[in-house]
Amino acid sequence: MHKFFNPESVAVIGAPSKTGPGALNNVENMLRYGYEGRIYPINPKVKEICGLKVYPSVLEIPEPADLAVISVGRDRMLSLFEECVQAGIRRVVIISQGFADADRRGAELQKHIVELAKKNNVRVLGPNTMGLLNNFHNLSTGFVDIPRPEKYPHVSLVAQTGVLQVDPKDFAYNSWGKAIDLGNMGDIDFVDALEYFADDPETEVIAMHMEGMQRGREFLEVASRITYHKPIVALKTGRSSAGAEAALSHTASLVGEDAVFDAVFERAGIIRAKTIAELQDTLRALVCFKAMKGPKIGVVTATGAAGVMAIDACEEEGLELAELPQGLSEKLKKGMPEWLRIGNPIDIWPVGMIGGNYPGAVGTTVTELLKSPGVDGVIMMTPAVNSPLHIDIADLTEVVSEARRKAGNNKPIAIWPYSDDHSVFPDRYEAIDGVASFHSPEQAVKGLSSCYKYHKLRNRAIPSGKRFIIDHDRADPVLERGRKQKVLAGEDALCLLNAFGIPTVRGAIAGNWEELETAASELDNPFVLKLSGSAFLHKSEWGGVKTGIDNMGELREAFREMSENVFRIDPKLEIESFQLQEQAFGKELLLGLKQDFQFGPVIACGMGGIYTEVFRDISREIVPVDRSVAERMIKSLGIYPLLKGVRGEEGVDMEALLDVLERLSFLAVEIPDLVELDINPLLVSETGCKAVDARLLW
Ligand code: ADP
Ligand code: MG
């Protein structure tokens, strides 16, 4: 990969003979971009392009170039690619479209080329790509002439498009240091790019634009490793509803593709940007700020209104307003009228105006905030009106630099210089170490919060699943049956869970009334009667669940009613058997498991019962789920306060619930061919939890 970004020589195959407007000549672009290596344009029809000697074929250039860039129609691609292989070239960028991005023939052609490449140890980028950009090496392989930026941060981009590369002003912070467009990902993919950026000293922050992915588990592994020393920000688009359509299990419909990506990013320590603007602000913060180690913010503002906006945004982002540093209030109030109130946000305008020294007041405040151990980051909102009449208060860059020097630390300072002219001050502020300039109070808060988020991600623990004892005597026969039938429900499903140590209600299967009577005599009332058998996967829909049965008379009545219900819906259907259970009490949760074909098993947990799909109050995590991940799952739920107990109500047995989640994670590892699993509901109460209904699917 290093040579892809830093080639000493490039063969440009299919270089256009024309130059100038409309030619889309990538040789011309490369020269304009300042590439200093050797360029070998290949074109059998011309002798010279932009003053460079042109070769009729790649077989005739004086060396095997480090990189070949091909842009020709797809019908000529294979033979030209073969020539590259023959010429000993090991890295090829295929710019052209019309492959897997187009039709079946294109997809086959792409497959063929990639196979050929693999056989010959050649790596391919694309097809359908803008290729590579490396400002540290003056390299841009694209057919769009983009200006070389004067300033570029150590931010590297891996994308599935070239548009972010063409227009960094709208996507990046200033620009990209390096960028790679994966195009169709015929060969080189996210994992390859990340592996390179991981150890690349010119990459400090990684940005990703992602639509889909291959090699999910490897991605998870390499990204998880990287985020302990470099932040990754992802803009994942195409929030598809795939997987959300009616499925056999609730879990499958509640764990759609996009939700899985959320879980993957969380597990890998990747910050997800929901919008392009968020991507830009996050990158700005990660580039400009050093770590923010806590959530406490000091706000100094010349406008009370913006202070309120900042408070709202802090609450939204989980940041807190810091206590005022000791002595600051007294310092600012010295010589001020007694009506002046100093709080956080610190409204600095009256202090500055009455005291006649606005810059001084801001300077003192920022210095004290930075110095205070109770403050983790500072927001400063100040007028930056670029008029000669206001220049005395507009430019506080010196004030901020001095505060930074005096405080002697690099806590982040997020500045919103509000102004009619953004051409001057943002850049000046950002020249100061640890300072970033934003366009609104909200963005300033967001910037600090992503910085804090990364601090937490970087210090996260690696989850490792626990092992439990399995009761094989009970599990194995049921497991075998499940694999054969592809589905397990009713008592079988509960039996399997129970063999993994997940508590279940006591119950039995009965083929007729006599057996039901016997079953009832061995269980404690109240009872629950249910239809059982493969015809009744969603029992309630058949009128096939009756709770609160206290005695034999009521059981008989329920038995009769249920038989009638089924007869009414389908007179030909015969009821194989009934399930009789003890009734459990508590709050209804859904616990589930879904095999994601990319990333492996995903565990879901949330509100159960009949409104599950209405509220979709679900958290999802990639296996393994250990104790602390399980805790995070439960705490992130909307119903968490209900589980904890409100208004004097006792909370549920949290330990028991966490234990079930850990056991479910273990089960997912032990039964890797399981596709879906639903426990709906798991009843949780103060005294423990019990699964009362489950379905498993192979
Ligand atoms: P299905 O999901 O196939 O309709 P369930 O077995 O989940 O059938 O039963 C439907 C509902 O009946 C459950 O969501 C729960 O509210 C209640 N229920 C079922 N079994 C029990 C039980 N043993 N104890 C308490 N409530 C139960
Ligand atoms: Mg159910």
Q: Main sheet: which strands, in order across?
A: 9-8-11-10-12-13-14
Number of helices: 27
Structural class: alpha/beta
Contiguous runs where pLDDT drops below 50 for at least 5 residues = none
What integer is the average pLDDT? 95
Distance between the termini: 40 Å
Which kinds of small molecule does this entry bind, naming each only once?
Answer: adenosine-5'-diphosphate, magnesium ion
Helix content: 25-40%
Q: How would you describe the shape?
A: flat
Which percent range describes the beta-strand content? 15-25%
| Total strands | 31
Largest sheet: 7 strands, mixed
Describe this structure as you would to a colleague.
With about 700 residues, this protein is an alpha/beta fold. About 40% of the residues lie in helices and about 20% in strands. It is flat. Strands 9-8-11-10-12-13-14 form a seven-stranded mixed beta sheet, with helices on both faces. Strands 21, 26, 27, 28, 29, 30 and 31 form a seven-stranded antiparallel beta sheet that branches.
Features:
single chain; about 700 residues; alpha/beta; 7-stranded mixed sheet; 7-stranded antiparallel sheet; 31 strands; about 40% helix; flat; binds adenosine-5'-diphosphate; binds magnesium ion
